[in-house]
Specification:
The chain is mainly alpha-helical and 117 residues long. 49% of the residues lie in helices and 0% in strands. The protein contains five helices and no strands. It is elongated and about 65 Å long.
Length: 117
């Protein structure tokens, strides 16, 4: 019996017949092959270029937070237009502004829940 670690530490054994070795007597081209090819599933990715790089998280600056807090005091739910305007003025995307407001509302809810305990 093969263990997972042995499969990961060496070239994967082909436990099933490859698709190219399956008899080509199938009439329907959309029909799945009778045997599953898992050899490619166990091998490492082809190249590191295919992997996406993770975007580093950017914290809001003190000036951005100050402006966002001022707007938050006026409205808890800014409109799409206001989010777009804030984003342009602060150098943030409207989505980032939206997420900031969501996080701020959630922080207030959590403080209220802790206070009620």
């Amino acid at each position: 019996m093969l263990s997972v670690s042995s499969l990961l530490n060496r070239d994967p054994p082909c436990l099933y017949t490859k698709h190219s070795q399956v008899e080509t007597t199938q009439q329907d081209p959309h029909q799945r092959p009778a045997v599953l090819d898992i050899c490619n599933l166990l091998s490492p990715p082809a190249s590191p270029k295919s992997e996406k790089k993770k975007i580093k998280r950017k914290r809001a600056t003190a000036k951005q937070v100050q402006v966002l807090n001022q707007v938050f005091e006026q409205t808890l739910f800014p409109s799409t237009q206001l989010r777009m305007q804030l984003g342009k003025e602060l150098g943030m995307s409207p989505r980032t502004v939206q997420i900031w407001f969501q996080n701020r509302r959630q922080a207030i809810r959590m403080r209220e829940r802790r206070a009620n305990l």
